[in-house]
Design goal:
2 domains, six-stranded antiparallel β-sheet, Arc Repressor Mutant, subunit A
């Protein structure tokens, strides 16, 4: 069931899943309910379509970055940090939260240390990148469910303003964060895409404005895109 959903470039309906798997619709529905309860799939209630949930993305990346295997993803991430000389992370979206799944810090004495975990998606480049990839109807439901807190004076807190920002991100293919989570910290993020073109996660870089500017962030987008492509090739296909 999970493979059938993951293979699709967009959300898929129950009848299509039943046909693809050659199973009765009642059986498919029963399995989907359990998967939704476990947050392994997400259900679009307006169209009754299903897509990969945040927990499955987290499990996939956790497997790749696990310490109990020689993970290529860690090598790629470390090489990127060595190249751009700034802290980089990989994350996914869970509602309006951005979850850091893997992060390697730069070796500068001055750096921002963040525990791996949840941050406000609307205030970081990786979170905004992932929000920009959402179906418009789902995005509006998320934005209508809770307020967008101001983390700094620069945080985007109005849903209409955020939607405008996300449209710009979709058009240029990368996201910027201009001191929106912490004062003095800027960042940039690009998508990690699967074989079908669907965005699986975000690859982000951030650093202090004392040495990193938005212009420098944009100048390093190409390096992040190349690293994201290498991570994509390492993603499990089965």
């Amino acid at each position: 069931m999970l493979e059938a959903i993951a293979d699709q470039p967009q959300a898929v309906g129950l009848p299509d899943l039943a046909a693809r798997l050659d199973l009765a619709r009642q059986t498919v529905h029963r399995i989907l309910v359990k998967l939704e309860d476990a947050r392994l799939v997400l259900r679009d209630t307006t169209r009754e379509r299903y897509s990969i949930g945040p927990r499955l993305s987290m499990l996939a990346l956790a497997t790749l970055s696990s310490n109990n295997q020689n993970s290529l993803i860690k090598v790629v991430l470390q090489n990127l940090v060595d190249d751009v000389k700034e802290t980089c992370n990989i994350g996914v979206l869970d509602g309006l939260d951005y979850i850091h799944l893997a992060r390697i810090e730069a070796k500068w004495p001055l750096r921002t240390h963040l525990e791996t975990g949840r941050v406000a998606a609307h205030a970081v480049s990786g979170g905004k990148l992932m929000l920009s990839e959402l179906d418009p109807d789902r995005l509006r439901r998320l934005l209508g469910a809770r307020k967008l807190p101001a983390m700094t004076a620069r945080t985007i807190t109005r849903p209409t303003d955020l939607e405008t920002e996300l449209a710009k991100i979709r058009a240029r293919g990368f996201a910027l964060s201009n001191e929106e989570l912490f004062d003095g910290i800027v960042g940039v993020a690009v998508p990690i895409k699967g074989p079908s073109g669907r965005t699986l996660a975000a690859l982000a870089m951030h650093g202090p404005v004392t040495r990193l500017t938005l212009k420098l962030c944009e100048a390093r987008v190409g390096r992040l895109i190349r690293a994201a492509a290498r991570i994509s090739r390492a993603w499990p296909r089965d």
